[in-house]
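go over both lines:
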Amino acid sequence: MSMLSLQNVSKQFGETRIIRDVSLDIEPGERHAIIGPNGAGKSTLFHLISGKYQPTAGKILFRDNEIQGKTPFAIARLGLARSFQVTNIFPRLSVFENIRCGLLWKEGFGYSFWHLLGRQKELNDKALALLVEIGLADRAEFPAGELAYAQQRALELGIAIASGAELIMLDEPVAGMSHSEAENAVALIRKITEGKTLVMVEHDMNIVFDVADRISVLVYGEIIASDTPAAIRANPRVQEAYLGEVPEAATDTSSGQNPEGVDGA
């Protein structure tokens, strides 16, 4: 059983087709990257999977259960969490309170209005342990909105993990970071998603090829290739999508050389 399965998924806004008959299976524990030129439909595809948009046609299955038509919060409660290009946290709550909010539903406090959270030792201990794991224990009492950008992204990832999600979807997780911040973010993503399924959209190809087990390339709403990083590097159609033409190196995959175009896309 695939963790996530898209079956002939399409999305149309008026007369404009943004996603065109996309079929894709992502296996449990896989680290899968979705890449493509600007305007290819990557964020729209994420919105379809997470319930922000509903598909015009096709099915989306999470652990063999259809989720198209469900609300984003209902999908999240099934075990699918996502981040956005713009950081999505509670800026006025403390860093600790943000993480604790992420734990509430999983720990059985979803509709428990009569509980005083400050007295829930086990819940609070779990929140503190997760803060240690994401490297924000020393910022526990800070208002989340006052964190540095990279720390806010780490907090957002921590909230996703706190929810107990089995599938984590990250939309450009290192966008806007310096080189050192991006390296730290990738190390955290590797650690925090160990044993989980990861799907990410990312423009930094060095990170994509370093992290992903498999890569799908989306162009004008269609997946033109889905394969291992090595095969994607050598795929002439991928080179053409990024460069507008097929480089000479891409036409000869027998030499063992990696075309340079995808690395710099």
Summary: DSSP finds nine helices and ten strands in the chain. The CA atoms of residues 31 and 213 lie 5 Å apart. The domain at 1-79+202-265 is CATH 3.40.50.300 (Rossmann fold). Residues 246-265 have pLDDT under 50 and may be disordered.
